[in-house]
Amino acid sequence: MAVHLIAVGLDQHTAALSLRERCVVGADELPALAAPEVPETAVLCTCNRTEIYSAAPDPALAVGRICAYLARRAGTTPEELRPHVYCHVGPADVLRHLCRVTCGLESLVLGETQVLGQVKDAYLRSAEAGTVGKYLHALFHHALACAKRVHTETGLGSSPVSVGAAAVDFARQALGVLDGRSAVLFGAGETAETVARRLREAGFGRIDVINRNSGRAADLAARVGGTAWRVPDLEERLAHADVLITSTAAPSVVVSAEAVRRATAGRGGRPLLVVDIAVPRDVDPEVAGIPGVRLCNVDDLEGVAASGRQERAREAAAATAIIEGCLGDLSDWLQSQGAVPVIRALRARFESVAETEAERMLRRLGSLQPRERELVRQLAFSVAKKLLDEPVRRLRDLAGTPGGHDSVRAFAEAFGLDVTDVAALPGVAGGACRGAVAGRASGD
Predict the structure, then answer these.
(1) Sheet of 49-56: strands edge to edge?
(2) Type and span of the H or E element at 382
(3) What integer pLDDT is reported at residue 192 of this predicted model?
(4) E strand or H helix that includes residue 197
(5) Spans of the chain below 50 pLDDT
(6) What's the pLDDT tens digit per position in 71-108?
(7) Could you give the CA distance from residue 180 to residue 35 in angstroms, rounded to a whole number?
């Protein structure tokens, strides 16, 4: 059965935050998405994107099912969602996109380094969910290996940047002098730690760390020289803070407008900056209407993210060249999989002949010791294995050449092998679509 690689998603380029936060999909949802149309699936969610990768027999059906799932998640229709969705089909286009994402070339902050860890984590979580098979394993392994090359051979990640760093830069622009100021950080994950370290480097005199897990808050506070607090302490800490930065993985709002309103009552008119970099959002959007409070979210960081983009763009060109050079490796591997059914059938044929001939010889030899009988069998199978080595190597090579699968089929016919699922991976040339899928990917 032919298999196509597919990537369907939406990001900060195609969808507003209000839509992206409704399309967040967790790895625990993958079993519900899995179906004959999408036998292999993996999900990648970051603060700027939700993407679902699949290996499927029919790309049109797979994309339709994925879009329908995302639409239900977002509380809309597939037709309304489609203009905000991009789609890549075929190993080259899917791998190119995943490599660009993994290297930070598609991030809000060009060259962001944190996304590499997010891709690794997404891959592992999807694998643990049991929805990743050999095709997606190969896809992610190739993308992660390519990203490692990019970070080793270019300067794209030499000056680490991230959304967390952009949030602190935004605070610097909004507040001016940061020395001695006070910050409240709600969250204790990887992004929150980046924020905390940047806050300390920027000169903040006090960093209060709050998290739903008090132990994690205490651990982070200890690492960055801050103070840990419980969630009920939020209002009291906001009464003294200059900025609140939130970065949790909560599925819904954790900072209510009422809590902020009560906190501002004791501030004596001092302004409060609230930076929400979580998706879904941590802060009730109504906070923006509270006098003296300025609320921004991850989409408001675009101006800060553009800083230094020109310098990183030169390294991005080098990274792009490395990515393009890596695309053929996955295509070659995928093409070679077309020979697997023939190799499997050929091996079974040789082993059957070895078993038959070993038994025939043992009957002629008569009475033998068990060890001697085992040696006869080992000899028969060893000869069969050695005879198989060259044909198997040639079959793999043939399958990876243009038109090679015709030769593979001819080989199968020459040996009288009954193999019905010999097929090249279709869509090798690939294709990308935005908004809708025009039709099926090209056949083999």
Answers:
(1) 40-46, 49-56, 4-11, 86-89, 431-434
(2) helix 370-399
(3) 94
(4) helix 190-202
(5) 423-432, 434-444
(6) 999 999 999 999 999 999 999 999 999 999 999 999 98
(7) 56
Task: Identify the DSSP state of 440.
Answer: P
Residue type, 233: D
Distance CA 88, CA 6 (A): 6
Record the tokens describing residue 269, joined without a space. Answer: 């008119």
Residue 97 and residue 39 in contact, taking contact as beta carbons nearer than 8 Å:
no
DSSP state of 38: B
Catalytic-labelled residue, pool 23, 47, 87, 103: 47
Our answer to whether residue 47 is catalytic in this structure is yes
Q: What is the pLDDT of residue 401?
A: 65
Q: Which string of DSSP letters, residue by residue, matches 204-228?
A: -SEEEEE-SSHHHHHHHHHHHT-EE
Residue 329 pLDDT: 84
Q: How far apart, in whole angstroms, are the C-alpha atoms of residue 217 and residue 230?
A: 8
Question: Which DSSP string corresponds to 47-108?
Answer: TTEEEEEEEES-HHHHHHHHHHHHHHHHTS-HHHHGGG-EEEESHHHHHHHHHHHHTTTTSS
User: Cβ(104)–Cβ(47) under 8 Å?
Assistant: no
pLDDT in tens, 350-381: 898 999 999 999 988 888 888 989 999 999 99
Q: What is the rounded CA–CA span in Å between residue 274 and residue 283?
A: 9
Identity of the residue numbered 5 = L
**8 Å CB contact between 7 and 62:** no
- Contact, 11 vs 48, CB < 8 A? yes
Query: 337: which DSSP letter?
Result: G
Q: Residue with structure tokens 């603060």? A: 47
- Mark out the alpha helices in 227-282 (DSSP H runs): 234-238, 257-264
* Cis check: omega of the bond before 280, within 30 degrees of 0: yes
Helix then strand then coil, % of the chain, to nearest 5: 55, 15, 30
Q: What are the structural domains, with CATH classification, of the chain?
A: 4-159+312-336+429-434 (3.30.460.30), 163-305 (3.40.50.720), 339-414 (no CATH)
- Residue among 429, 366, 439 nearest 94 (CA): 429
